[in-house]
Design a protein that fits this description.
Blueprint: H1 7-23, H2 26-33, H3 41-51, H4 69-82, H5 88-102, H6 105-117, E1 122-125, H7 131-134, E2 158-163, E3 166-177, E4 184-190, E5 199-205, E6 211-216, E7 225-237, H8 245-279, E8 283-284, E9 287-288, H9 293-321, H10 327-349, H11 360-374, H12 377-387
Parallel strand pairs: 1-4
Antiparallel strand pairs: 2-3, 3-7, 4-5, 5-7, 6-7, 8-9
Length: 395
């Protein structure tokens, strides 16, 4: 393994950081999250047209750049540094890989070029607060099946039934990332009238009749979420129905975890930089507080955690592209590092660290919000240990 970045990877990071520095500063960030979309459409257009970010990991035959998960993870590190609100995670990380893996030739040819160009945004809708379970990051059902999280029948979730030569969906989905603004929804639904029936994925237009989408108030305002209500909504089956959807979601989970780990590392590194800058300027007893040994030691501990998490995230980005499942562990380490860096940043900033006007609280909310969506850390680690049979007795 060559741990050095290629010239192309360095260029992706440099150009993306420069663009976000110009277009997604603190004022632009706050203005974007207050819009109905929850992000700046002009910035998303720039990311697509100037950098090709939505299609970074899509094949060139579909208008993408033909890069791997590694490059996508490096891009996520830069968007994490800026806490940039955009459809990148929902569209390029969570949805596009499913369309590529499961879609028919016609579906790929229709949808993926539009995603790569930035014209089509998409979102993955998983019933209930079970996204991490559906992606195989925090365990599975005690029965050994991975589909019970989707509900079904009287258990809730989303039901799919065939009608008039097509499919109709009925149910509700909460906590859909960018679900209020995405033009395409990939919805997980049961195809029978009971909770253990088969789970399939369906394509739903964002303007479909019978679909109600409401943006929800989220802890992390930089990750817009929505509640979807589907009342006999017309849908198209993703793929041909014979694919192993649960296995595809598990493979997606490792890819998503690698990208999320890189994103968290980017945020952790940035909040640490801002904290170090601040303690070098704020004076107490006639000297900068950063000159006190206790402050140095605390920030040194954070630095070690962030660097270790960065190494784990980089390895996960490389290993996932080779088929190795290490994303969950890297995500656990990155989320812990982000939480520690953000908490120390609030502490070191003193009184202004707990004010709405300062940006440091946004990093803490990103850490807490990601743990609610994709963790928590101890469950990520416990599931990784279960997969590796760490605590099973030999014999």
């Amino acid at each position: 393994m060559d741990a050095r970045f290629t010239a192309e990877q360095d260029e992706i990071r440099r150009t993306l950081r420069e663009l976000l520095h110009k277009r997604c500063g603190p004022e632009e960030l706050r203005a974007a999250v207050d819009t109905p979309a929850g992000h700046d459409p002009a910035l998303w257009t720039a990311l697509a047209e100037q950098l090709g970010l939505p299609g970074l990991a899509l094949p060139e035959g579909y208008g993408g750049a033909g890069c791997s998960v590694t490059e996508l993870a490096l891009a996520c590190e830069e968007t994490g540094r800026a806490l940039a609100p955009s459809p990148l995670l929902a569209t390029a990380v969570l949805t596009a890989p499913l369309l590529l893996a499961l879609g028919t030739d016609a579906q790929r040819a229709d949808l993926l070029p539009r995603i790569a160009s930035g014209a089509l945004t998409a979102a993955l809708a998983v019933p209930g607060p079970a996204l991490a379970t559906a992606l195989g990051l925090t365990g599975h059902d005690p029965s050994g099946e991975w589909g019970e999280w989707a509900g079904g029948g009287r258990a809730g979730g989303v039901q799919a039934r065939q009608a008039d030569g097509g499919w109709r969906l009925y149910g509700q989905v909460d906590q859909v990332l960018d679900g209020h603004s995405a033009r395409l929804l990939v919805v997980a639904a049961h195809t029978g009238g009971f909770a253990r029936s088969r789970v399939l994925l369906f394509l739903v237009r964002g303007d479909a009749a019978g679909l109600t989408r409401v943006r929800q108030t989220a802890l992390d305002a930089t990750r817009a979420q929505a509640r979807l209500q589907l009342r006999h909504v017309e849908a198209g089956l993703l793929g041909r129905g014979g694919d192993d959807v649960l296995a595809a979601l598990a493979r997606l989970g490792d890819t998503a975890a690698a990208c999320l780990a890189a994103e968290a590392v980017g945020a952790a590194g940035r909040v640490l930089e801002r904290t170090v800058e601040y303690v070098g300027q704020r004076e107490q007893f006639g000297r900068p507080i950063g000159s006190f040994q206790a402050v140095k030691h605390r920030l040194a501990d954070v630095y070690v955690q962030v660097q270790a998490a960065r190494s784990a995230a980089y390895y996960a980005g490389w290993a996932t592209a080779q088929g190795e499942r290490v994303g969950g562990l890297a995500l656990a380490q990155a989320l812990q590092a982000l939480r520690g860096a953000a908490a120390e940043g609030i502490q070191s900033h003193g009184g202004i660290g707990v004010t709405w006007e300062h940006d440091v609280h946004l990093y803490f909310k990103r850490a807490a919000g990601d743990e609610l969506l994709f963790g928590p850390v101890h469950r990520l680690r416990a599931h990784a240990a279960d997969l590796a049979h760490v605590f099973e007795e030999a014999g």
